[in-house]
Amino acid sequence: MTVTAAEPITSAGKPAPRKHYHDIDGARSVLMFLSVALHAGTVYAPARPWITANTVRAEFFDWLIFGLHLFITPTFFFVGGFFAVLLLTRRSPADFLWNRFLRTAIPLIAIALTFNMLEHYLRWADAGGEGPILHWVSSSAFVEVWINGTWQLHLWFLVSLLPMFILAAAVQVAVPKTTKIRTIAIKLCDRFGGIIAGGVPFAFGLIFLAAVNTANYASASLAPNSYELMAPGFQSWYKLMGEFPFFVIGVMAALSPRLLSALTEWRWWMPFAAAAAIFFQPYASAEQSFGIGMAMLFLNQLAIWTLVLFILQFFHRFFSEGGPRTTWLADCALSMYLFHHCFIYIYGVMLVGTDWPIEVEFVILTLLSAGTVIVIHELLIRRFGLLRLLFNGKTDVEQVRKQPSLIGAFGLQHKPAPKTMGSVDLSPKV
After folding, report:
1. Residue 249 contacts residue 260 (beta carbons within 8 Å)
2. What is the pLDDT of residues 201-222, one digit of tens each?
């Protein structure tokens, strides 16, 4: 579902058309597809030797997965905060929470109980476990999966989003639109947007955001038991708070069009900065001294913000118009995110016995996993109401059938409408 802005009132007293943020929705959709390559890379990354029994690995895949990790999930949290505000502008807090329950919690639960459990069973069997899946379900290994939080696998992003949505609804109740606090908050967002507009001020804005993230991580690490799960099967405080600033800036961007404009304004030097961030990939490590570790943490957060905002600027510049392809990608994105992880493991195990170059295997693994999910989405999720509710959180089967399918969105050329008498062709002649 493409989330739109609230309906302003025109001078004629009628609601103005809602603004569709195709660029932001498109960024989220493409990154969800890109997460397939991220997880396929883990099969061949030396840093993740436990993924499969594949012993042929290359450091390039470490570089790939750590580079993708820098910006994919933080961008998701920014988009989550942005669209949360837009939904709250036209829904009551209770209706908003119900919508988020349908769109986030139900797919999370459905995948966790099905494909995630299938993957965990296969991992258990590959590690030497014996017996059918019902035997595994009745074992202590199954209980441990749920208690230690590993049931989440790639779903940890959705798990972390849920308390943030609850917090957003609580703030909406505690701070109504008419309160002075909200007015001050919006003015501060506008002011920040004005300060970072342009080129050089924006660079200092990146440094400021990186410093805020660094301080956030440092303070989170000082909390008692911050690395332990806050509740059995949930998240640690450190992990939850680590992504929170991106959600907050997404909220601020939704509250202030001026800030959103400043964040998405194209800067000529941002592609070079993003390329440097991907190439160098600064990460802090336990072997470093305190001072070096803090400096690397700051550079890490600077790289992340550079990449996140470059992604938003890129899509704003080149993908703001929407269209059938954007519509299809947005509809398939959640299916791709939910289902692909299990297929990465299944096909990854199948490819262990092959003797192909791992670069070729990686491409095949990525395409096979993504292709399988697309088939599931096209033949099942788009057509059956119960499956669409369980795995996409939607009940709009009749409406989605009217939207272009994969072939309609990417395979067919749309013929221009015939010209009528008096019409003028304003397209350039080439």
Report:
1. no
2. 999 999 999 999 999 999 998 8
